[in-house]
Amino acid sequence: MEVDNDALQATYKKLADLLGDDLMMKFYQEFRGTQLSLPMKLYDREGAAKAVRQHYPEMTVKELADTYGYTQRWVKQELKQAKTDQRPK
User: Fold this and answer.
1) What is the C-alpha separation between 77 and 82, in angstroms, rounded?
2) Residue 42 and residue 13 in contact, taking contact as beta carbons nearer than 8 Å
3) Three-state secondary structure along 8-31?
4) Is there a single domain that holds both residue 56 and residue 24?
């Protein structure tokens, strides 16, 4: 089906500009009528914490914070917690 971009709703027009007509149509067919609220953070805490533990010290605290969208303070807390978890009891 040919898409008439000039007649699209603003939201679908933006999606077509970002993704192309084919992916916009797939998105439309999957989610039409659904109200979406998308998280500000791309990565969830558990996944980011696991990744931080895996990639440190190859990546700096700043690089990890920038990559996963959390603060340097949070990254340091996760690394401290990981160190505490590894101590023998």
Assistant:
1) 9
2) no
3) CCHHHHHHHHHHCHHHHHHHHHHH
4) no
Q: Between the CA of residue 49 and those of 11, 27, 86, what are the distances in Å? A: 34, 30, 15
Rounded to two decimals, the pTM is 0.74
Name the residue range of residue 74's domain: 45-86
- How many CA atoms within 13 Å lie on the side-chain side of 48? 21
- The answer on 33 and 62 residing in a single domain is no
Q: First vs last Cα of the chain: how many Å apart?
A: 64
CA distance 42 to 7: 31
The structural domain count of the chain equals 2
Q: What is the pLDDT of residues 61-82, one digit of tens each?
A: 999 999 999 999 999 999 999 9
Quote the tokens at residue 24: 């916009």
